[in-house]
Structures are given as structure tokens and as C-alpha cells.
Amino acid sequence: MTSTMPAGAASPDAATSTTASRAAETIGGVPGAPQAARARELLRRTTGGHEAPTVAMSAPFTGEPIATLGQATDAEARSAFTEARAAQRSWSAVPLAERERMLLRLHDLVLERQQEAMDLIQVETGKARIDAFDEIAAVALCAAYYGRRSAKLLGTQRRAGLMPGLTKASEVRHPKGVVGIISPWNYPLALTALDVLPALVAGNAVVHKPDNQTALTALWLHEIAEEAGFPREIWQVLLGRGSTIGDALVAESDYVGFTGSTATGKRLAGQVAEQLTGFSLELGGKNPMVVLDDARVPSAAKGAVTACFSSAGQLCVSVERVYVHESIKEEFTREFVAATRRLRLGRGLDYSADMGSLTSQEQWENVSEHVTDARDKGATVLTGGTARPDIGPLFYEPTVLTDVTPEMSVYAEETFGPVVSIYGYTDLDDAVARANATPYGLNASVWTGDIPRGRAVASRIRAGTVNINEGFAASFASVDAPMGGMGESGVGRRNGAEGLLRYTESQSIVAQRGLRLRPFRGMPPGLWTRIMTASIRALRHVRR
Ligand code: NAP
């Protein structure tokens, strides 16, 4: 909601009727969460949902209600764009240095108030607190990066003109206008920030549809952004299902940034193509880890645990396939399984658990189905393979499989859960070929005692990011390096210069003096073309 819309966009009566009647210290039945009272206030930040139906969201840890969310209609979605478009005009005139300062303030606020955000993230996603902290870190790193680099990246760049000294060319960057951002539930703070913040600093307004499951986390960041100085109207938060407001989001956006499944991404790309607007898609993966024969096995085994089970495997860049050289496979498997068994599952809003819950019933069913199907078709479950309703309704043990074959769904389909398969190899070419044998290409990991050798292997893997002696965190946190997918894992990149410039249109402004680029009066065209041919030949040798 914006300041000009009536309060209660998500009706206060509808919003958090359950939490409002609870003690302020609980939310979604999770003890110790101080965010219940905030939920109602945060929900006032949404656009739409006055008349439309509501949906009730529940906490993965407990299954108990968190909040009831008003859902925007198609008309409300379109009016959010109208408002964003009006606000964008004055926003793009705010000096870049000031926009950068806002990002740096946001960086400070997110780090200072991280406990609030981690409570909300845990309550809404069910992830462990250490994984929630990864989101805080990602937001702060992103805000600092664009807070310090945007003016340089967006500033007018001189380009080489046709005739040195006579043709002056420059490239100017203009904001796209209003950017539509659609984000998923698995990294609700990080994936919101990584897409929304660069769009804003580039001078765009944003209409953002977070996933209903993690609406409060997105709204928390919206509030922090306002405290940091961003005008509220330039970032409109729309709550609603894609099936209701998706068409409006696509039709009204000057650029669409989508993060989610490959299936949805393909559908949206088809719609966006019709109107010839730009888009970036950050989609699914079936990410491989290749452990070379010279890898340090204890590090690789520990690294694999983080790579596979962070956020209970509900991470687009997490590893689901491990290829280990046969000479160390037994040792690696023993250490990996032992380290996996040591993981503490839990639901406290503290650092007592290493792994949390799955986020939704749908996710839980997908994980259970993949493991059951693999087991039924002959896979060996080395550890895990069972649900843990004793901890919470959506908990599932971290699961390591071997003897996995192509007939099993877990072999090639994204599980998006705490399930990994181990395969042996003897020939590195074969390992690389198998690592590449999916339509995806998001992230990969290579473990070796020889970094140059690791780089050589990495360059042969078809993935947008490859981490050497790390699972995903090194590339995820290196904000200057672009991140995104090849193949069915996506189009475009977030982070780095590309993550900012995607939200701009480039315009070349070229001033010519002293020479008309046509024959002078009375000059025969043949003479002119001979002069030009000689000039073009000479220009080839001029370094510009
Ligand atoms: P999803 O079903 O594609 O949904 C993602 C978001 O898109 C949700 O907010 C969803 O909202 C919305 N949506 C769905 N259909 C829409 C439409 N027609 N128009 C507009 N919005 C629409 O994906 P998910 O299952 O929630 O998320 C998990 C997937 O995301 C995994 O495949 C994972 O690998 C991928 N992911 C990729 C990255 C990356 O950076 N590459 C990061 C995180 C996750 P509704 O459901 O309410 O419609």
C-alpha cells in the first residue's frame, strides 16, 4: 500500500485475526517470536486486498496460523502500476549519490535489526537460524555493493566515436520505468533485495509480488527501505496469487524479474515475449558437485553437508548430485554420512538447530515421493529417508542415497529438499559429462587440492556459477560476480554490473563536427568512397 491509499489494504480485521488475539510473544505458535504485533502493522504496507478473498498462512514449524492475507485483484494490481509509474518520474530525478546513500543506510539497518528479520524468516519458512542469517548477509552485501558502485556503473560512459576528435560518442543509461518483480518463498529476504534494490537504485519504481507464504519478511524489508529513505510509493508490494494478478504484472511491467520454477518461468517468458519487454529469469537447478581424486576428503564431506542441506535443501543453488572419484568414494561417503547424521534438527528461534523444516506441504510431499520412488526402484538410503513429525509437521531428515538410476525421479528432477544422491566415477571426462547431463545449468561445485585443476574442470561445467572447494556460498556472496543460470536454469544475471544494468535502457548520444558523412558539395561519389576507404583502413590501426 502506498501513503495515498486507505490504511488497511490488507484489512486489519482480516489481517492476523489469530495472531492479534494471541500473546504478543508468539506467532504461528512459535514461542519467543516478538513479531506477532508487527504482522498486522506490516500487512498495512500491501497494495490491494480490500475486497478480494483472503488466504491464511501457517508456520511450517507448527502448522499454526501466522496471518490472514488480503489478496489483490487484477484491478488493484493495475492501479499499483499507475501509482508506481507516477512516483517513478520524480524518483528518477533524485541524484544517484542520494540513492546510493539510501542503500548504505539500508545496509546498516538490516545488520542492526537482523534479529527481527531472522525471527520472521524462520517463522515463515521454517529454516534454521544460521540459514536465515545467510539472507541477512546477502542483503547487506548487495546493499553495500550497489550503494558504492551504482553511480559509476550508471554514469554516462564515453565511447569511441567514428572519427577521433570529431565524433564524440557517449552511452547514457535510463531506467526502464516500472519493474515487476516476482519472488519465491525459499529466500524471501535475500531474493527480494537482490532483485528489488538494484532496480530501485537504477531509478525505477518496482511492483513486487512476494510469495504469500513469506509476505511478512518482504514487507519487513519494505519498511526498512522506507526508514532508509526510499519513498514508499516507488516500491509497491502486491499480495496475491500469480493466477489472479500474474497477467497484470506481466502486461504492465516495463521489465519483469522472476525467480521461481522453470515451468512458471517458461510460461511468463512466453507472455513477456508478446510485448517485447525485457526479462530475467532465475529458475531451478539439479546442481552437481564433482569431487576430484586429489580432494581433501574431510573438507569435501563437511562442505557437502552445507551444500546439500542448508535451508533443508530448499535453495536453488544447493547440491543434489555428488560425483566422487572411486578412489576416495568409500571414505567420502563414510564421512559425509556421519556428518549428515550429526545434523541437529529443530525449530527454535536460536542457533540450536543445524537444519529446519520444509516450508510447505507441497514441498514435503515432493521430497517424500522422490525418496519413496527411489527406494522402491532399488536405491539404497544411507541415512535419513524418513519424516520427523515428532519435531514438526513438515520436518524431513537429511537424506543420502546411493545406487540411484535414471528411472528414478530423484535422478534428474529437481527435488528442492534435503535429498542428495552419490555416484562414483573413474574417468573425469565421464564425471563432467554426467554433471552436464541435465537441461539445467545453475550452480556447480568442484573439490580438489589443486585450484588451477579445479578451474579447468569448472570451465567445462555448464553452469552459471561454479564454486571451487565450496558448495554455493562463495559465489552467492561474491556480489561483484554475476549469478544466474544457463539452459533451463534461467535467462539473465543478478549481481554485478549485469544485475544493475538489466534494469536500464542504454542510449548512445553521438555528436559529429567538422565532417559530413556524405560527399562534400560537388565531390564525385567515387572520390568520396575512395577517401572513406582509406580512412577506414587507417582507423583500423588507431587504438581507440
Ligand atoms: P513457482 O511455483 O514458480 O513460484 C514462484 C513465484 O511465482 C511465486 O511467488 C508464485 O506465486 C509466482 N507465480 C506463479 N505463477 C505465476 C504467474 N502466472 N504469474 C505471476 N507469478 C506467478 O516456484 P516455487 O515452487 O514457489 O519456488 C521454487 C522454485 O524456485 C525452485 O524450482 C527453485 O529452484 C527456484 N528458485 C530459483 C532461484 C534462482 O535464483 N535461480 C532462487 C530461488 C528459487 P503463486 O504461487 O502465489 O502463484
What level of helicity do the residues show? 40-55%
CATH superfamily of the largest domain: Aldehyde Dehydrogenase, Chain A, domain 1
Task: Please indicate the count of domains.
Answer: 2
Q: Uncertain runs with pLDDT below 50, 5 residues or more?
A: 1-24
Mean pLDDT: 92
In the CATH scheme, the class of the largest domain would be Alpha Beta
Gap from first CA to last CA = 50 Å
Helix/strand/pairing category: alpha/beta
State the CATH architecture of the largest domain: 3-Layer(aba) Sandwich
**Associated small molecules:** NADP nicotinamide-adenine-dinucleotide phosphate
- Gyration radius (Cα, Å) is 26 Å
Q: Count the E strands.
A: 19
For the structure shown, list the relevant keywords.
544 residues, alpha/beta, Aldehyde Dehydrogenase, Chain A, domain 1, Aldehyde Dehydrogenase, Chain A, domain 2, 7-stranded mixed β-sheet, 42% helix, disordered N terminus, binds NADP nicotinamide-adenine-dinucleotide phosphate
Q: Would you write up a description of this structure?
A:
The chain has 544 residues and is α/β, with parallel strands linked by helices. It has 2 domains: 72-283, Aldehyde Dehydrogenase, Chain A, domain 1 (3-Layer(aba) Sandwich), CATH 3.40.605.10; 287-484, Aldehyde Dehydrogenase, Chain A, domain 2. The chain is 42% helix and 18% strand. The chain is built from 19 helices and 19 strands. A 7-stranded mixed sheet has the order 1-8-7-6-9-10-18, sandwiched between helices. A 7-stranded mixed sheet has the order 13-14-15-12-11-16-17, with helices on both faces. Strands 4-5-19 form a 3-stranded antiparallel sheet, with no helix packed on it. A hairpin with a 6-residue loop joins strand 2 (54-58) and strand 3 (65-70). Helix 11 crosses helix 12 (326-341). The longest helix has 26 residues, at 129-154. The chain starts with 16 loop residues before the first helix and ends in a 5-residue tail after the last helix. The model is unreliable at 1-24 (pLDDT under 50). Bound molecules: NADP nicotinamide-adenine-dinucleotide phosphate (NAP). The site of NADP nicotinamide-adenine-dinucleotide phosphate has 30 residues, from helix 9 and helix 10.
